[in-house]
Amino acid sequence: QVQLVESGGGLVQAGGSLRLSCAGSGDTICISTMAWYRRSPGKERELVAAISSGGSTDYADSVKGRFTISRDNAKNTVYLQMNSLKPEDTAAYYCFASPTLQPMCGMTTWWGKGILVTVSL
Description:
Layout lengths: L1 E6 L2 E4 L4 E9 L4 E9 L6 E6 L5 E3 L7 E6 L4 E6 L8 E9 L10 E2 L3 E6 L1
Parallel strand pairs: 2-11
Antiparallel strand pairs: 1-3, 3-8, 4-5, 4-9, 5-6, 7-8, 9-10, 9-11
């Protein structure tokens, strides 16, 4: 089992920055891709950014050029640097991790409990 714990959320004014962190613990040897999702009120959950174990990244069009995902494999931690924040970035942000193909890791994915980011005008 893997546990994911997010930190770094809060209230920020439009144009400001926040850095989210997600620390993994437990069977961290099983962690492959890590990602951030978000869910805004009245909207479906969406992928914000993802990063593979090798460092390849992918971003939602809405955050390209403003958000940067990175990871520290030694610390089993993934980060999301969010710059030029907009009110529409207001959401609960969730950390996600998928397992490697090792048989011992199974096929279960893991989620953090989420952290709130609020961007005010």
